[in-house]
């Protein structure tokens, strides 16, 4: 059907539709040689292994990737990968305690979250002065590590419960993730992909405000207060995001009140980076 040429990545969907998993894997592996750290490609490789019936190899790959990401401080990616393990085998609930241990170990070599955020803010101000107030762009890795540091700030006793309560959400290009005005009860941390932020203008038209990518949050206000969503957010590309719900946080905070304090402090320290702050600037509030 595809000739005798080497499988090509641009034909991946065709291979999958034909259930030709050998060609699909060959195409993904070839693409990974060109982009070895591309998260979505690594996910596709493990997913195709599962589709091909090689469940044990898929789980082993997910776990290996998750451990490596956790050790490098990319906790969000590690959470996403361990959630994939649980989809293959729900009995492997020990992954949450394993991840909690890895987060705790990795966090020992770093400053507390509040101090790290303060340092990041100071660096931003310094760069602004050096560049005549031009907005500095942090590296993707720095942004993802800073976002992931949220998890290392939770008390050890509560961390495993929080990790277990998170959900991995996946969206296709064009999907609506949240809608302005609807009830909101969760925050999202983008693991991969990009989203667009829209709000309604004075005449009811949709205005695009910004785009967010891996390492960005949205929905903090809804999680902390339960207030309606202040913007509509859609997937610009294939998106993987970790969702943490208000119900889960409230339940865990009943036993560990420090959990809510960590989230409130995190919100306070990055208040100018929230979707709500972007909207206020746009409207001149």
Brief descriptors of the model:
285 residues; alpha+beta; Jelly Rolls; 13 helices; globular
Notes on the structure:
- The protein is of the alpha+beta class.
- The strands form two sheets. The chain has a four-stranded antiparallel β-sheet with strand order 1-8-3-6. Strands 2-7-4-5 form a four-stranded antiparallel β-sheet, with helices on one face.
- The protein has two domains: 9-92, Tetratricopeptide repeat domain (Serine Threonine Protein Phosphatase 5, Tetratricopeptide repeat), CATH 1.25.40.10; 155-283, Jelly Rolls (Sandwich), CATH 2.60.120.
- The chain contains 13 helices and eight strands.
Short description:
This protein is of the alpha+beta class. It has helices at residues 12-17, 21-34, 39-51, 55-71, 75-88, 95-107, 113-130, 140-152, 156-165, 220-225, 246-255, 258-269, 275-283, and strands spanning 167-171, 176-178, 186-192, 195-200, 206-212, 217-218, 232-235, 239-245.
CATH first level of the largest domain: which class? Answer: Mainly Beta
As a percent range, the share of strand residues is 5-15%
Number of extended strands: 8
Which structural class matches the secondary elements? alpha+beta
CATH arch. level architecture of the largest domain: Sandwich
